[in-house]
Amino acid sequence: MLRDPSTKYRPFPTIALPDRQWPNRTITKAPRWLSTDLRDGNQALIDPMDAEKKTRMFDLLVKVGLKEIEVGFPSAGATEFDFISGLIREDRIPEDVTIQVLTQSRRDLIERSFESLEGARTAIVHLYNAVSPAWRKIVFGMTRDEVRQIAVEGAKILRDEAAKRPNTDWFFEYSPETFSTAELDFSVEVCAAVMDVLKPTPDHPLILNLPATVECATPNVYADQIEWFGRNIPNRDSVVISLHTHNDRGTGVAAAELGVMAGADRVEGCLLGNGERTGNCDLVTVALNMYTQGVDPKLDLSDIDEVVNTVNYCTNLPVHPRTPYAGDLVFTAFSGSHQDAIKKGFAAQAARNDDLWEVPYLPIDPADLGRSYEAVIRVNSQSGKGGVAWVIEQDKGLKLPKRLQADFSRHVQAMADATSRELNAADIWGGFEATYLPREGDRFVLRDYEESGSTGQRTFIGRVQVDGEERSISGRGNGLISSVIAALADTTGPNLEVIDYNEHAIGHGADAQAAAYVEARTPDGRVVFGVGLDTDIATASVRAVLSAANRA
Predict the structure, then answer these.
(1) Shared domain check, 371 and 388
(2) Residues 6+ apart with CB under 8 A from 257
(3) Is 242 found in the same domain as 121?
(4) Quick one: DSSP state of residue 251?
């Protein structure tokens, strides 16, 4: 890299728009959406989709709710042409969906595009030619007048070919390709010339697509360009301003959002951001960003995993685990402090009297996208007690007291350090069983027991295996737990002092289990924990005391 990059690169010029309005606006409704997965997305693939994959992708786009779908570049070859004409011939296009095709401004390509749409109920033909200085000078060697004339001639052919097919309701789209690096006045000039040919009206508007063909500036500059264009294009009520952003600088989504705030009506992009080079605008991210602000995006992404799996299959491209909203890890916390905040957030959410979502670290409810809460908190060597407790509660229904959470967390930390990997629910439960529940070699094993007495004076008589030998032990106390502790103290067991006791049901109904937790102190000052599980809460508490005694 250069120490002084200014010797090679120039900063992008800003737009003179001192009274810009877009910074004070918010997005309050969904734009029109166009999916270009089957065109821009497909042409960017190492192995373009075959007919089966194209059909599967088209069906997904319809299911998600896309009403405008760019289905291909019919003049590119037989695969594209046959797929597009097949959609029409096989009547696969729902009545509320309009397909779109792309063509360069050349007579033979435009005519071929119309041929692919024979019999369509309605369709959009998308015409484009590049207009920026670099393309005029380097690629075409043309003047501004010559480039404008390419657009005008193409528009005339669109008009004439549509007139030959009056049974189709035709709409047109024009893109001054490389708009974001072109002179704004020239982009308006070319678009106005196209409008002069096609004669759009408010009832039958022309779509003017303003692409950031290559993203070369910050998204606020693009927003300025869109607002300036909207102010200066003639007959604004007869055009639909559409955005087509790319992600070369990593801000394709932001540019689209600011462009909508700047007055755009329509957004083009791909599901999960596939597209040339670094990709197109990710429609999923833009739509769900709106959703988290309380705006209905008019797209159904309630089964995000189906979207991910279909896109992955059709494009043969992996979806990064950190992809917003859709990645495998976007709703997952490994950090202990994050896990604790999320766990408390879910508890607070359950106690709310309204449906307002407010959970730390989760800008959206995973359930809205068809994701479960089980994967929200996962455990590795970075995790804390809250994360471990969450997994145990979600997997087994145990609500561990806080100090027991901390005690077990130390065991889990040792397991994670020893294995150097993520611990799953089975690993954690196995560690919990080995630490607190009955195991081979325990000093105290409950066989049977009975209790008697009244409130304030209880007697425990139990058959307990002690050091491998079954014995009858008994003790008295002011409750069942204290009488069990007395029975142990009167034999060979430890003399425990109970610090804390908790219990709860696991599940509901006659078959529900109970869990009991004991925190106790030994004569030498050590703190030990015990856990008991049983269908009877009293028996669970006895098992919890013996569990603590086994660890004393």
Answers:
(1) no
(2) 27, 219, 286, 289
(3) yes
(4) -
* CATH code where residue 241 lies: 3.20.20.70
The enclosing domain of 355 has a CATH number of 1.10.287.1400
H or E element that contains 103:
strand 98-104
Q: Do 265 and 405 reside in the same domain of the chain?
A: no
257 exposure class (CB count in 10 Å sphere: 0-12, 13-18, 19+):
buried
Q: Going by C-beta distance under 8 Å and a sequence separation of 6 or more, which residues neighbour residue 62?
A: 69, 94, 97
355 & 269 share domain: no
Instruction: Residue 506: give the domain boundaries.
Output: 444-550
In a domain, 187, yes or no: yes
| Annotated binding-site ranges for Mg(2+) | 40, 244, 246, 280
Residue by residue, DSSP assigns 481-497 as HHHHHHHHHHTTS---E
CA-to-CA dists, residue 92 to 99, 114, 115, 311, angstroms? 11, 18, 18, 20
Shared-domain flag, residues 415 and 513: no
Q: What is the pLDDT along the chain (552 residues), one digit of tens a residue?
A: 999 999 999 999 999 999 999 999 999 999 999 999 999 999 999 999 999 999 999 999 999 999 999 999 999 999 999 999 999 999 999 999 999 999 999 999 999 999 999 999 999 999 999 999 999 999 999 999 999 999 999 999 999 999 999 999 999 999 999 999 999 999 999 999 999 999 999 999 999 999 999 999 999 999 999 999 999 999 999 999 999 999 999 999 999 999 999 999 999 999 999 999 999 999 999 999 999 999 999 999 999 999 999 999 999 999 999 999 999 889 887 777 887 888 889 889 989 889 899 999 999 999 999 997 666 666 666 666 677 888 888 889 999 998 999 899 888 888 888 888 888 889 999 999 999 999 888 999 999 999 988 777 889 999 999 998 999 999 999 999 999 999 999 887 788 999 999 999 998 777 789 999 999 999 999 999 999 999 999 999 999 999 999 998
Can you say which residues are annotated as belonging to the binding site? 40, 244, 246, 280
For residue 152, give both structure tokens: 């005008």
- Number of structural domains, the chain? 4
Same domain, 402 and 297: no
Q: Using alpha carbons, list the distances in angstroms from residue 88 to 81, 101, 309, 349, 390.
A: 11, 13, 26, 49, 52
